[in-house]
Amino acid sequence: MKKVSFILSALAFMAFTNQTIAAPSTSPVSTKASSIVWNAKKVTGEHTGTIAISAGKLVVNKNQITGGNFTIDMKSIVCKDITDPEYNKKFIGHISSGDFFEVEKFPTAQFVITKVVGNQISGNLTIKGITKAITFPAQIAVNKGKVSAKANITIDRTDYDIKFGSKKFFESIGDKAIFDDFTLAVNLVSE
Questions:
Q1: How far apart are CA 107 and CA 124, in angstroms?
Q2: Is 14 part of a structural domain of the chain?
Q3: Rounded CA gap, 153 and 131, in Å?
Q4: Residue 131, CB half-sphere, CA atoms under 13 Å: how many?
Q5: Which of 13, 149, 152, 159 has the least C-beta neighbours within 10 A?
Q6: Between β-strands 130-137 and 108-117, what pairing exists: parallel, antiparallel or unpaired?
Q7: Is residue 92 within 8 Å of 174, Cβ to Cβ?
Q8: What is the mean pLDDT of residues 122-149?
Q9: Which of 2-16, 59-73, 106-120, 126-140 has the lowest mean pLDDT?
Q10: What burial class does residue 74 get, using C-beta atoms within 10 Å of its C-beta: 0-12 exposed, 13-18 middle, 19+ buried?
Q11: Is residue 19, in this structure, part of any structural domain at all?
Q12: Is residue 26 pLDDT above 50, yes or no?
């Protein structure tokens, strides 16, 4: 009788545990609702634009993001501030070339979350086949199964072998210098 009672108690506990402890869930990133706005500065000005997220997922456990990734379509880069069509095309062609992102050889970039502590997200960013660990603060919200994460990420382009116009490598470049840091304003929204 004690064995039966023990087994029934164990089964009841297991059933209760399975109902109250939710497993992590994975939500695909909405490529339509998500966005990235980039900004790069030089001594004489700055440029800004957008680039598309082509895929991604967010892993959530107990209303907290615990993992995930997103892929950036490097061929989708757009410059918003250059209004002259010919100059805009020339600019995009240059930053897509081997001087910058070498888009034909490296058509995507990727970020993979490795750790989330509070609002600090850590992960591996891969650009031009080079992977570096980065950490940044983010605004994270989970509401009725929808996940959103917003962050302003500062990236040193020279970490990814993008040296064109950098004073680190061309000291006498003067006012033609392009700052090493650029920013990505990332807005991820789950489907």
A1: 17
A2: no
A3: 15
A4: 8
A5: 13
A6: unpaired
A7: no
A8: 94
A9: 2-16
A10: buried
A11: no
A12: yes
Average confidence (pLDDT) over 50-66: 94
Cβ–Cβ under 8 Å, residues 133 and 122: yes
User: 21: pLDDT confidence band, cut at 50, 70 and 90?
Assistant: low
Closest CA to 30 of 117, 147, 183: 147
Q: CA–CA distance from 117 to each of 65, 100, 123 (Å)?
A: 9, 33, 12
Provide mean pLDDT across the span 57-68: 92
Q: Which two tokens stand for residue 172?
A: 């006498």
12 vs 164, more confident: 164
In this structure, is residue 7 part of a structural domain? no
The structural domain count of the chain equals: 1
**Which tokens belong to 66?**
């615990």
> What does the alpha-carbon distance between residue 158 and residue 181 come to, in Å, rounded to a whole number?
8
